[in-house]
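HOLO CASE FILE
Compound: pyridoxal-5'-phosphate
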Amino acid sequence: MAHYDPLVIRRAEGSWLTTVDGRRLLDGVASLWCNVHGHSREEINQAIRTQLDRVAHVTTLGMSCDTTEELASRLTLKTPGDLDHVFFSSDGSSAVEAAIKMAFQYWQQVDCGVGSSKVKYLALDLAYHGDTTGAVSLGGIKYFHKLFSPILFSPLRGPLPCTYRLPAGVSPDQACEVYASQLETIISGNRDELAAVVVEPLVQGAAGMITHPAGLLQQIRALCDRYDVLLICDEVATGFGRTGSFFACQQEEVTPDILCLGKGLTSGYLPMAATVARRKVFDAFLAPVEESRQFFHGHTFAGNPLAAAAALASLDLFESDQTLHSLSGKEKRLKQELACLDDHQNVGSVRGRGLMYGIEVVQDRESKSGFDSSKLIGRKICERATEKGVWIRPLGDVIVLMPPLAIQEDEIVMLAAAVVESIQEVTFDHS
Ligand SMILES: Cc1ncc(COP(=O)(O)O)c(C=O)c1O
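Model generated. Tokens follow.
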């Protein structure tokens, strides 16, 4: 396999990256899943510049910035239900970390009789919630997380609600009920200890773009209500239009108790994340200051005004560009361009929602068994695509397609063509 030096980018515009030596590459993974409106959008750049001339940073501890306040209000117009209280941090992992602690402290303080015993979490198999210690504890990808097990807490582990590899004897129509029933067994059996169920709604990105059966999130919400457990939705990857709706949970009309946001919040321009809580969670922290019920968690750069300005400009662009409106047409086009892989003997599954797709390359389509990992098939396919002018990154042998939502249809055609050809060529070399 050819050896590639890491690409060094000097400029970027729209969906295109330009390296220091002048190569142009289509950004097929939205700069690690975060770019929404394309690179170098004048509206976002200008908003950051304008904010810079006012104030670059002030703390949110004991004070705030009006731009950050405005963002909090605007965000809660977008979040479902009474998710009205925004806690800012700097990256998705920190948003999850805050959610873990918030859920714990909620049960310690809420008047429910069994509060203090609710100290456990339920996470799904192959979950990914970030790389800080709490988030890694929830994580279920052994390749990333196993090494750290001596320093992690152990969550209860639910199934991987996969629609491609189903449990033996389970049909696609039965999958939702089967996974929900497995989850109910765990939740009901641990209801007095369980603080929260944590899920990536609809699509588990880092697990390999695993799509959940339709209706499962709604069932998980119902289980959390039935057994008095909080629901935390980690929408760091799925939020901000990525799966076709503003937030993925809205597709199932679910309001989580705590919602984690990151990546696309600033359209991927500056580091910012948020943990958004429902009123009942927020209320559990209210008390005279002497009672010390406040949330003891704060990051220096939380709510940074420059990032908030970028996020506000991004929210404006969702409206002026009608980003969500054009998305279903783009998804349709992507699926159409990838349809030629339906009969490819080494393509097990093309799956996803919105512009969050994965193509799983397998050695044997019938048994769904993968190539030996030492063959690095996914990596080779992505390197071949880079030679063809498209920048993508694999997750094992799942080829991830996650371009900026602002990608144009002709660019989708180029992206798909490069990926299809690369899959055909590399799998042919290994046949
Ligand atoms: C679902 C999910 N949660 C959390 C994170 C962590 O976000 P960050 O890399 O900004 O810390 C990621 C990152 O990919 C993610 O996909």
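CASE NOTES: The CA atoms of residues 321 and 341 lie 31 Å apart. DSSP finds 13 helices and 17 strands in the chain.
CLOSED: yes
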